[in-house]
């Protein structure tokens, strides 16, 4: 059993729940129309919102299958960083408690994704002399 299995399943559950519910309650379309289009992504806000959520679903499946972990991780980290830049940074650090809607959750997910992508740490490539 791979040492990252528990983390991969946990991240997959988070990505799936964060995506699938928005497909059925119009949340993705609302995010695209009422947020992304309003901050300058018009007329592509809905397309971007759907692309983000579909990337989450694909990444979740890949994490469960333990396939293409690094590409799935890089795409998801990019989405999380953009979420920090566009939404969460202005709200501060805390998601709840000392604030609301801050960056701490995305920060933790990025760290977990890096741990999944690099379970043995970041190793430098050594060349032969």
UniProtKB/TrEMBL annotation:
Keywords from the UniProt entry: Cell membrane, Membrane, Transmembrane, Transmembrane helix
- Return the InterPro entries for the record: DoxX (IPR032808), DoxX-like_oxidoreductase (IPR051907)
- Secretion signal, residue range per the UniProt entry: none
Bilayer disposition of the protein: Multi-pass membrane protein
Segments spanning the bilayer are: 5-24, 44-65, 72-90, 102-119
Does the entry feature the keyword Cytoplasm, yes or no? no
Q: Which domain of life is it from?
A: Bacteria
* Primary localization class, coarse: membrane
Q: Which GO terms describe its cellular component?
A: plasma membrane
Its localization reads: Cell membrane
Family, similarity comment = Belongs to the DoxX family.
Name the chain's protein.
DoxX family membrane protein
Q: Which organism is it from?
A: Flavobacterium hydrocarbonoxydans
